[in-house]
Amino acid sequence: MNEVGIIKMPIGNLQSVLNAVYENGLDPVLLDPTSDMDSLTHLIMPGVGHFMAVKAQLDADGWPDKVRAFAASGRPTLGICVGMQLLATTGTEGRESPGLDLIPARVQRLAEGNEMLRVPHVGWNSVEFTRPHPVLSGVRPGADYYFVHSYAMQTECSEHSLGETVYGQRFTSIVGRDNVIGFQFHPEKSQINGLKLLDNFCNWDGKC
């Protein structure tokens, strides 16, 4: 059986992600900086909050090299919300700061819109799949997912954008490169379609 590890982020949606993976029939492991990751088959990096603050805490706990090494091993690696943003090369929240550089991309603030398109972007919005991927298999295209964010990823290579959403502007809401994938929305709060995405990820072999 696959063994899924969830990084115990200082600011995050840990319990809801853990519950969602558990509901899909797996028994996930919460990871702290001293955890042995050798037996893990899958890694999830959830996150809620400020890019620079979360990255600083990851740095303090020694996580960046561990996450990069896990991804380099070919094992499936998932980032959720700020966890997805941290997969990028750089983020600009607060000031420009480095991400994990697993996907060539820059995280920038969403453009301010009118009263109907206020930032942060909070609530349900649709995701258009732009490229096929095993994690998206069997999931209804154009379904709504739950978002809470003020910043969004802009990929350097269009082939890394697997899904897009429109909120005043078009932005990447699902990103993927090799065995690494990220969701800007919260699949664990997105009902049946979100749970299906998590189930697909937890049963994915990391190959496209």
pLDDT average, as an integer? 93
Instruction: Report the end-to-end length measured between terminal Cα atoms.
Output: 21 Å
Main structural class: alpha/beta
CATH topology: Rossmann fold
Q: How many domains make up the coordinates?
A: 1
**Inertia-based shape:** globular
Determine the strand fraction and express it as a percent band. 25-35%
Active site: 81, 186, 188
InterPro entries: Class_I_gatase-like, GATASE, Imidazole-glycPsynth_HisH
EC number: 4.3.2.10, 3.5.1.2
Pathway: Amino-acid biosynthesis; L-histidine biosynthesis; L-histidine from 5-phospho-alpha-D-ribose 1-diphosphate: step 5/9
List keywords for this structure.
single chain; 208 residues; alpha/beta; Rossmann fold; 8-stranded mixed sheet; 4-stranded mixed sheet; 14 strands; 23% helix; globular
Characterise this structure.
The active site is at 81 (nucleophile), 186, 188. Heterodimer of HisH and HisF. Pathway: Amino-acid biosynthesis; L-histidine biosynthesis; L-histidine from 5-phospho-alpha-D-ribose 1-diphosphate: step 5/9. This protein is an alpha/beta fold and 208 residues long. The protein starts with a strand and ends in a 6-residue tail after the last helix. It has a single domain (4-202), classed as Class I glutamine amidotransferase (GATase) domain (Rossmann fold). A hairpin with a 3-residue loop joins strand 12 and strand 13. The strands form three sheets. Strands 2-1-3-4-14-13-12-9 form an eight-stranded mixed β-sheet, with helices on both faces. A four-stranded mixed β-sheet has the order 6-5-7-11, covered by helices on one side. Strands 8-10 form a two-stranded antiparallel sheet. The chain is built from five helices and 14 strands.
